[in-house]
Design goal:
- This protein is of the alpha/beta class.
- The protein has helices at 15-23, 27-31, 38-42, 65-84, 104-119, 183-191, 215-218, 242-248, 300-305, 316-325, 351-356, 417-429, 447-455; strands spanning 52-56, 94-99, 127-145, 151-166, 172-176, 198-203, 219-221, 227-232, 251-255, 261-267, 271-275, 282-288, 311-314, 337-341, 363-367, 407-413, 435-440, 467-469.
- It is built from 13 helices and 18 strands.
- The strands form 2 sheets. The protein has a 15-stranded parallel sheet with strand order 1-2-3-4-5-6-8-10-12-13-14-15-16-17-18, with helices on both faces.
- Helix 4 runs parallel beside helix 5 (104-119).
- The radius of gyration is 28 Å and the shape is elongated.
Length: 470
């Protein structure tokens, strides 16, 4: 019987490989790995091997809130000690810090080191991700600069006070529910990033006590941005705040001549100024009506500003926003792909007008067919309720009959009576169809039977002979 070898394989690895391994785990974990290897225990400073520093307080479990509040200081003490023991700021390529709070002196020491690493001459820092979930951190700088930083994330409780920003290499900026960023410092930040390509803005923690939308959603103006993602969930105004509500939701501006992709989710503004968007190709919209008496907002100029796009995705809320709050629908002459998401509480009233405004539409995708039945869905829908004392109307050419759609794709098909009826309507009206693709809901019972039901439906287009299940 062979005797087991007690060789220490880790100690035989070269420093470059050890550094890569340690850089893949949180820094606190990396610091505790000295027990794994004699060579690591003998190494006086493992930080000399890593190029990534990652600190995350959410990985620390506290017995109660009171202990957690005090322990945030101890967590920052550990971060501060680790950073001060780092042999060289110049070798660090990525820093991530997420913490709950902590007293101001602790935060000042930690963030002072991080900002100086940003500005280090000859440094390699490319990514910086900062998150503080309580106790606002005030970042004050005469000049915020880095010649190497490519990606920057600020999340939650930060306020920024800068006289000038110069981040000549920054390509991706994420502002995630940043509570203390005012308009002027936001403008300085955007203007100080001459090659910025991606801007991500979210505000998901708003409450009814705060009627103000984040400044980053009211105005995005940049000649270089190619990808813009905005997701803001604002509450309806409280009684007595109506004046402030209307003042701060007066206009939303997007001026980005290089913009290619836009994902925009927000409650409606009174008006929109979406200009110089000739490069824009793909748009996802989630435009939400306010939960208040009457209608507030007008998306007419927004629709006109994106009318040259080739791909459009509309949420159920957006369908209602276009129906109730769009005075005139532009012609989407370049639109080739239209994707509609359905919801049983939202109607399809705008569908006839929308389809008639897309003369060159090639692919029509529905995520679900079940929607709120109304009397204004027109001939785009098979579910129009019957009226008593029905009056004779002059014949109108169906929007589906004139539609040039060649590909129809249905996702999340559940085979209800309403869905089957709608499929019969589509297949009997779309005369240019060449391909039909259907994805059946996985949880649907007797899927073989419901697929057979679909295959028996008549198809008016002579160029389409079958339904493909995906």
């Amino acid at each position: 019987m062979r005797s087991c070898s007690s060789r220490d394989g880790i100690s035989e690895l070269p420093d470059e490989i050890l550094g890569k391994i340690l850089s893949l785990v949180p820094t606190k974990v990396a610091a505790s790995t000295t027990v794994l290897s004699k060579r690591w225990r003998m190494n006086s400073n493992l930080l000399a091997l890593v190029d990534t520093l990652s600190f995350d307080e959410s990985m620390v479990v506290y017995p109660n809130v009171e202990v957690g509040s005090c322990s945030s200081d101890r967590f920052l003490d550990f971060v501060d000690k680790t950073l001060r023991n780092c042999p060289s700021k110049k070798m660090i390529k990525k820093i991530s810090l997420s913490h709950r709070g902590g007293r101001v002196p602790k935060s000042l020491a930690v963030y002072g080191w991080i900002l100086s690493a940003m500005e280090e001459q000859g440094g390699l820092l490319e990514e910086l991700h900062l998150e503080c979930t309580s106790n606002e951190v005030h970042l004050e700088r005469k000049l915020l600069t880095s010649n190497t930083l490519v990606k920057l994330t600020l999340s939650r409780e930060y306020s920024l006070e800068v006289d000038r920003v110069f981040l000549p290499a920054l390509k991706s900026l994420s502002l995630l529910t940043v509570g203390g960023l005012d308009y002027h410092n936001y403008r300085r930040l955007i203007q100080g990033c001459p090659v910025l390509e991606e801007l991500f803005v979210t505000d998901i923690a708003a409450d009814a006590a705060d009627p103000y939308p984040p400044c980053c959603t009211t105005s995005v103006e940049s000649p270089s941005i190619k990808r813009l993602v905005v997701s803001v969930d604002m509450p309806s105004p409280r009684p007595g705040t109506q004046q402030f509500f209307q003042e701060f939701h007066d206009e939303s501006v997007v001026n980005a001549p290089s913009l290619v992709y836009l994902d925009y989710s927000s409650h409606l503004f009174k008006d929109y100024r979406f200009v110089d968007l000739d490069s824009l190709a793909q748009v996802r919209l989630n435009l939400k009506l306010w939960d208040q008496p009457g209608l507030y907002g007008d998306v007419t100029n927004l629709a006109a500003g994106i009318s040259n796009i080739s791909t459009l995705h509309l949420s159920p809320d957006s369908l209602e926003a276009f129906h109730f709050c769009c005075k005139s629908m532009p012609v989407f002459k370049n639109l080739l792909n239209l994707s509609i998401e359905s919801n049983k509480k939202k109607g399809w009233q705008v569908m006839p007008l929308l389809l008639n405004s897309c003369p060159n539409l090639h692919t029509l995708v529905f995520k679900g067919l079940v929607h709120k039945v109304t009397d204004k869905c027109g001939d785009a829908c098979a579910c129009t309720p019957k009226k008593k004392n029905k009056k004779k109307k002059s014949k109108v050419v169906s929007c589906l009959k004139t539609c040039q759609v060649k590909v129809l794709e249905i996702l999340e098909y559940g085979a209800s009576f309403q869905e089957l009826k709608q499929m019969r309507h589509f297949l009997g009206m779309l005369e240019c169809l060449e391909t039909v693709r259907v994805a059946v809901i996985d949880a649907a019972d007797n899927s073989v039977f419901l697929r057979a039901n679909l295959l028996t439906l008549p198809i008016v287009s002579s160029n389409c002979n079958n339904i493909h299940f995906i």
